[in-house]
Structures are given as C-alpha cells and as structure tokens.
Amino acid sequence: MEKEKSKLKKQIRNPIFWVVTLFILYMFIGFIIIPFIVRGQIVDFIQDEYNREARVESVSFNPFNFTLSVDGFLMDEKDRGIFLKWGHFHVNLNFFPLFSKEIDIEELQFSHPDVTLIKKREGFNFSDLIPPEEEADTSKEEMDWDILIRKLELQKLNVYIQDRSVEPFAEIHIDSIDILLTNIHPFTTDTTKFTVEFEIREGGSGSIEGIFTQIPMLTELSLDIDSISILPSQPYVSQSAYLRIDGGEINAEGNVHFEMNEDSIAIASYNGTMGMNNLNLFDTQKEEKFLAWNRLENVGVEINSEPVSLNVDSILIDGLYSRVAIAEDQTINAIDVFEPTFRNTDTTSVEESDSSDHKFDLGIINISNSEMYFSDFSLPIKFAVRIHSLNGKIGGISTGNPIGAIIDMEGTVDEYGYTRIEGNMDPFAPLNYTNIAMNFHNIDLTEMDGYSAKFVGYEVDKGKLSLDLEYLIKNGMLTSSNQIFFNQLILGKEVESEESLGPIIKLAIALLQDSEGNIDMDIEVEGDLNDPEVSTGKLVWWAVKRALTTIVTAPFRFLGNLLGISNGNELEFVDFKVADTSLAPHQIEKLVSMTKALNKRPGLSLGIYGAVDTVADKYKMQKIKFDSLFTFRLKEASSDESITTASADQELRREILETMYSESYSDSLLNILISHHVDSQNTENISAANIEDSDLKNIRDYFNDLTENIIAKQNISYSELLKLASERAEKINDFLIIKQKLPKERIAIKENEIYEYEDDDWVKCRLELGAL
C-alpha cells in the first residue's frame, strides 16, 4: 500500500503526467464540452433574445486549429414557417490575434443556406432581430476590437422574398446564389472584392463582380443580367395600371459606379447596354393586348444621378405591337389604362419637381417588323385599321432639341394597303407642339374586323378607303385637317347597334356618292385639348360627279370592266411619292392588273409617260439637299462623323443655320429675320451676334423660319427634274418587262410630262394605250 502511494506521488510530481493530463482535458473540453455548450447556447440564446424556436443537428470544434462547424441549423418564424436554415456552417479563427483584440477569421463559409424574407405592412419578418438604433449606436461606440474576415463564402444560397404590403402578395425565388467576399475589414479604407452568381426560379440568371470600400463609401461593379422574368412584378403593376404581364425578360450588361461624396450626396452612374425581350402586356379593362415586342435593345446607355442625365446611342425595337385608340371624346387608351395611378395620386400635395437640370438624349429609335392598331372614333365616321410590316425611326428625343422629335414610319395595311406617319413632336410636352401627318391608302373596308358594322350600322360588302390626316397642336390648341376618300363603298345588311349612325348613313352615301361610286370628304377639327369639354369644329361634306366617258375616251375604264374592276380608270396613272422612284404596294397592284389586261388583249401596246411636279418634287428635292448639306456642315464643324441633327447641340445648329442663311441671302436680311423673332420692341442694331436664345420669342419657330428660307435657296436644275421623271418611267418599264414578263416590243417610253402643284404627296405618271 505504501509502495502504491509512493508510486502515485512520484507520478504526480512528474511533469509529463500533468502535460498528458492537461492535453487530455483540453481535448475533452474542445471536442466534447465546447460543442455541447455552443449547441445549447445557440438554441437558448435565440429563444431568450428573440422568442424563436431553433434547432441544431450537430456542432463540432477543433481546439487545435480553432475551427467551428455548425450543421443542420434551423430557425423558425415567430408565427409559423422557417425563417433561416443551412446545411453546414464553418468558421476558421486565427487564435493568437485575439490577445491584441483582433478577430481574424481565416474563412467563414455557409453551405446550402435558405432564408425567407417577408415584408409586412408593419415591418419585416426579421425586424425583431435588428437591435434598436440607440442600442446599435452604443455597441458601436464600445466596440474597440478590430475585425478581419479574409474569406466569406455562401454556397447555393436560396432566398424567398415575399411582399405582403401589396395585394395579391408579390414573391420571387432567388436560387443557387454563390457569394464570395474577400478581405472584409469594417470601418477601414481596405478594399473588399466580391462576386455573386444567381438564378431566378421564375426565369433568368445573373452575375455581379466588383469591389467596395467603406471609407470612403465606394462601389464599382460589373453586372450581367440574362433574361430575368418581370412576371413577379405583376402585383405592383396591378396597383398602378389595368395591365397584366404575360411576358417580359430583362437583359443588362454594364458597369455601375456608386460613391458618397464629401457632402454625403450619393452619386451613381451606369454604362453599358440594357434591353427587354418578349414583352407582352394585356389591358384587363378592355380585354385586349395593349403592348408587346419581341426585342428591345438599348446600346450605349449612360445614366448619371448628379446631374440627372440619360443618354442612349441607339434603341432597337423589333416585333413591336401597340394600340393607339382615340375615343369619341378624344381620350386615348394609353392614358385610360393608367387610371389607377391618377386616381391614387393626391395632386394637391404633389410639388412640381425642377427638371431644368435633367438631360435626356435617346438618339435614334429604330423600329422594325412591327404592328400597330390605330383607331379614331372622334371622326364622324369611325375609323379603325391594323398596320403591319411597320418600319421606321424616331430621332431627336432630347432635352436640347427645340424642334421636337422627328417621326418617320411606313407600313402595310392588308395585302396592298399603304400607310405613312411622319412629322415632329415635342416628346416631353406633346400638347405644346405636335405636327403629325398620317396617310392611309387603299384600305379594304371589308377587312376592318366589324368596326364598320358597329359604328355605321351596316356591314360593308365592298369598298376601299384612303385617309390623309394632319394633326397640328400648339400650346394645347388642336387644328386637324382630315381628307377621307371612299372608293366603291357598298353597304350590306343592317346590323343593330346603339352606337351606329342609323338610317341617315344610307341617305348620306346617296347624296355623296358620285357616278363612279366614290365619296370625297374633308373634315376640319379645331379644339382646345386643355379643356376636357373640347368641341369639334364644323364638318363639310360634298360630292363631285365625274362625267361618264366612253371606251374611246376612257379606255382604261373599259379594261377595268374587262377584269371586273369597276374603278378601272385608275389604271391610267401610276402614283409616286414626291421625289421618289419606288413603287408603293397599292401601285404594284395596279400594274399587276394592267398586265392581266394586256394579256387578255395581246394587240394592245402601252406607252409610259414620265412625270414630275415642279413644285412638290422640287421642294422635296430641295429639302433632301438641305438635309445633306446641313449634316455635312454639322460633321465639319464638330469634327464628329457620327453627329446627327438630333444629337447636335442647339448652339451649333443655330450657328450653322444662320451661316447658311447669310450665304443664301445676306447678313442684313438675317438681321431683319431675327428682328421678327425677338421679344424686344427695340429692333435697332439687331444681329445674330448680340441676340441670345432667350431673346427669341420661340426658338423652334425661328429655326423653322431659317430652315424653310434656306431650303428655298437650294438649287434644283430643270435637268434634275427631268431625270426624276425619266427614272419613274424606267421603273414602271422595268417592272412590267422583268417582273411581269411582258414583251419589250409592247412597251414604249414616251416624253416626260410636267405638272405644277397637282398634289402635295403624290405625282401621277400617265399610261397610254395604243395598237401594235
């Protein structure tokens, strides 16, 4: 016994014994005790501090390399459901820096975390986890530890976001989020790098890569957004418009810069591209498609917050579908669909924002392969049409463009119909200035989807329609000139409709229809668009009878009868747009019919007369020359080959216009012209050099006056006009020989015919029948 006690005392005095014992105790505490305590403390802390249930599957701690792992963590919502969970959490802490009050985390990693974020009307589902502001500020002041996280990684994070403040609830699932941050050093000037990759369950994916610093607050990142669906935004859209989102995908690729300057003002900018594909919006009130497109791409996008500016080099819209519907009271569907926004807006408390420093420049908008539904029920005879194969451009949507945006669109109606929309409009204040001309020709009334039956009261068995509509708005005052032409209108059976004109329509047609079955109408409308009770001006109807001709005097009418074409006399002329030599679709129809007639009468020959209008053609050619010269002067003055009339600044445009005017006339005449456009009563010693833009009554009128006078001075020679007439005759000749395979010996080009202001828009080339 004494020997055993002696042996025990000897072991106790041995240092190795204590080292081994302490080592075993250290491992026991590290591997067993600490995980047990941590696991319990996590659950108890969440229960005591936040009154939430939490569960942890396992906790492990390595006392040798100070790594802690928490697996199978789950925290419940306060009411029900799961707020946060993860599969694996791992932290690797450097031990020795703790002695100098430094928390140095080598690696912090979460694997397969899931979090649910819910916005409620009274707050968020995580609001109770955030300490009050006073406590947060106090803890910040007492924090004297330095924290460094060398690597923070979240792998396959899934986030479910729900907004219960809107009805129905808005929700989105962001899946498979991979986040990597390196060198996180709070409250220092150190730079943190980060990368984020994610997928949207509802459609789309994206990636973000960049850096940020806290002192000064600065972020620079590059983002790549690929086909992110806009469907989750439906609840927000429903609150502000009668629209349902049936499709839409956002794309973006660019660089974002954000910083907080010395005055604590946030400055942000974006440079890159943006776009949205496969958009489809449905009007839920009228139950019809409202707006759609296949592709919208903005190239060269630059957005700045200080000062506020938006610049886009070019915009491409492909496969656009839009509806422009003017109701009988002249309201527009594009405004009606946003009625919830106007209804929910308290206009008495809204202050007008100062947008004088805001700059917008959208460059050229190119529209291709598009379709537009247009209807104007403010006319005495209701009109509706579908335009397809719509192509064109809109340029000059800029805060620095005094003459407004330039619109030039062209499309096809039905198989042979034609439409054109051109003019100018102030895009930021269309009621201040709009000057738009819309032309519709050869429209088949039987293809108008029942609108004629609804609003006229009868079905249409036969008939074609041509319209020339001109809308001029200045300071809210509308002046509209509408020329309407019905060709061979034949009504069918009566249809009951409360909105129809009733029996008077047949009497009106009987009074207006000439011997050829045509109706000409000219409708003028004037009104104040600022007044909701805007009045419609007088309507003038008249009819012009055309003398019947014999087969000898009107051989083309005979050919029309031969082909079953009652308006065969129209075959006598092929119409060309002014200053143009291309064949419009409704003119091709004429030549196809002419070919059929000549094939039925092989003994006939055809003479083609070239034609030119010395007023209309000359003016358009002068304008084309002016546009070319003006663009050349812009490029020469700015040394910028990409500059356009729309992108040039106002000062440069004025300088070039005044120089061109002086060259065309004289400096003294320029000063006289300026004197007519200044506000001052004293017009002595007025010159371009001492008159600022602000001195002018209306710089848009001044620019237009300069332009029209310069256009008038552009030299168009008589030989150029004759060349245009000859080219038109050659175009008809080539179409009949090459396309329609008519023998060359049956066609002869005759001398040119000269007209003077026969029509504003079209020039007629006469055809002549003869014998072989």
Arithmetic mean pLDDT: 78
Uncertain parts? 347-353, 533-553
| Count of discrete alpha- or pi-helical segments spanning 4 or more residues | 15
Oligomer, anyone? Answer: single chain
Q: What would you call the structural class?
A: alpha+beta
Sheet-strand content, in percent, reads 35-45%
Question: What integer value in Å does the Rg equal?
Answer: 39 Å
Q: How many angstroms does the end-to-end distance come to?
A: 149 Å
Task: Describe the structure concisely for a colleague.
By secondary structure, the protein is of the alpha+beta class.
Question: Can you lay out the helices and strands and say which pair or pack?
Answer:
Blueprint: H1 2-13, H2 15-50, E1 54-62, E2 67-76, E3 82-94, E4 102-111, E5 114-120, E6 123-124, H3 133-142, E7 146-163, E8 170-184, E9 191-200, E10 205-213, E11 218-229, H4 234-240, E12 243-260, E13 266-283, E14 288-305, E15 308-318, E16 321-326, H5 333-336, H6 339-343, E17 359-361, E18 364-376, E19 383-395, E20 405-413, E21 417-425, E22 433-444, H7 451-456, E23 458-474, E24 477-494, H8 504-512, E25 518-528, E26 539-541, H9 555-563, E27 573-577, H10 585-600, E28 604-608, E29 611-613, H11 616-638, H12 650-664, H13 667-675, H14 699-712, H15 718-739, E30 747-749, E31 753-755, E32 762-771
Parallel strand pairs: 4-7, 5-7, 15-17, 15-18, 16-18, 28-30, 29-31
Antiparallel strand pairs: 1-2, 2-3, 3-4, 3-5, 5-6, 7-8, 8-9, 9-10, 10-11, 11-12, 12-13, 13-14, 14-15, 14-16, 18-19, 19-20, 20-21, 21-22, 22-23, 23-24, 24-25, 25-26, 27-32, 28-32
Helix pairs in contact: 9-10, 11-12, 11-14, 12-13, 12-14
